[in-house]
Structures are given as structure tokens and as C-alpha cells.
Design brief:
By secondary structure, this protein is an alpha+beta fold. It contains 2 helices and 9 strands, in the order ααβββββββββ.
Length: 220
């Protein structure tokens, strides 16, 4: 409706220009009859302008009335919110899909939140609790399955990428962010990572799309 109002305003401006041009042409060329300021087709009575303005105001007013009654904008997507640990899926009740052999799985980071779709979830960074070295992390998204049981919804970062995750967060728009460090080769000492990246996962088309950017390397 606002587009329609713009069209009416443009038409009104066009009539003004047309009238002004017609009057100027008649004055510069042939004289006009007494009592007339221009050609008959270019003359517009004041009530014509009043009607045009009233019509524009009515259209604009109707367009504004189409906004929410509260006058507050409605977000296109619900915002994500943080949850208490007890309200999100408990990682301790889920068998995380890490191949640790004889070693147990240890949860390094856990962030419960209600994502943009309104569902309660927990983002988890976990690794094998080996006694030596720096075991890589996997980042997993947990949700509630049938019967309210916690389950793994998807793997956001597999452990085979050999990254150590030091930060995880859930943004208000529902995106998941994280920071990780790793190694460019097996020759790089485990205590001195030479790769550092910022990670972002966004929910698209029923799945999660990952993007990453390089970040300054810092000591672990």
C-alpha cells in the first residue's frame, strides 16, 4: 500500500509539472484568453488538488494502519535465549559419538540455550579423556528426543579435524559461535598450535551451515 501511495504522489507531482509547463508555453507563445491562466486542459481547480491530497493521505493512512496495533516491529525470526543447565539436554545422559577406545568421554564445554526455533538444546564440546597429549574436541548439538530423552541432533565439528575448542556461545539470532586452535601438521608441537579460527554455525534448510575465519594464534 505504501508503494501505491508513492505512485499517487508521483502522479500528483507530474500534474503540477504539466500545469506549470503548459502555462509557461502559453505565456511565452500565444496569448491566452482573459481570465484564464493557461490552456483549458492544463487548468486545475483548487478542489482537484484537495481531492488528490485527500486521496494520498487516505492511502498513506491505510498503509500505516496495516502495521501492528502495538506499533512495535515483529521480528522475522524468534530470538535465541539462554537456559539454566537443568532446562537443557544433559550431556551426561547421552552417549556422545566419540571413538575413545578405553578412555572415557569428557565434556569440556556445555552451553544450554533455546534456539531460534524455540527448542531447548545444549551445545557441547567434548573429547577423549586421555592421560597424555592434547586430545581434539568434537562439537555436538543435543536436543530432546522421543519421551524427552536427550540425544545427539547433529555433529557440528568432528574430532577428526584435530581442533581444540576453547569457546562456545549462542547468539541472539540462533547462530552458534566458537573459537578453536589446531595444528598445520604432525610436526607442530602439541603445546604450540599454529592454527586459530573463529567458527560460526547458522541454521539453514533444516541443517547447520558452517563458516570460519582466521584468528590470531595465542598460547593454549
Amino acid at each position: 500500500m505504501l508503494a501505491h501511495a508513492d505512485q499517487l504522489l508521483e502522479l500528483w507531482r507530474g500534474r503540477l509539472v504539466e500545469t506549470a509547463v503548459g502555462t509557461t508555453t502559453a505565456t511565452a507563445g500565444q496569448p491566452t484568453p482573459r481570465g484564464r491562466s493557461g490552456p483549458g486542459h492544463a487548468r486545475t481547480a483548487p478542489w482537484h488538488w484537495a481531492l488528490a491530497l485527500a486521496g494520498c493521505c487516505a492511502v498513506v493512512g491505510a498503509a500505516l494502519a496495516a502495521s501492528p496495533a502495538t506499533g512495535t516491529p515483529v521480528p522475522a525470526h524468534p530470538t535465541a535465549t539462554s537456559l539454566a543447565a537443568s532446562a537443557g539436554p544433559d550431556p551426561a545422559q547421552v552417549q556422545l559419538p566419540l571413538d575413545c577406545g578405553p578412555f572415557p568421554v569428557r565434556t569440556a564445554l556445555s552451553v544450554p540455550a533455546r534456539l531460534g526455533d524455540g527448542r531447548a538444546a545444549t551445545v557441547v564440546a567434548a573429547h577423549c579423556a586421555t592421560e597424555t597429549g592434547t586430545p581434539p574436541d568434537a562439537v555436538l548439538l543435543l536436543g530432546f528426543g522421543p519421551g524427552g530423552r536427550p540425544e545427539v541432533v547433529t555433529t557440528l565439528l568432528p574430532e577428526r579435524e584435530n581442533l581444540t575448542v576453547s569457546r562456545i556461545a549462542v547468539r541472539s539470532d540462533g547462530a552458534i559461535t566458537g573459537h578453536a586452535q589446531g595444528y598445520s601438521s604432525e610436526d607442530v608441537p602439541r603445546f604450540r598450535p599454529d592454527i586459530s579460527i573463529d567458527l560460526t554455525w547458522t541454521h539453514k534448510g533444516g541443517g547447520w551451515e558452517r563458516s570460519q575465519t582466521a584468528a590470531p594464534v595465542s598460547a593454549v
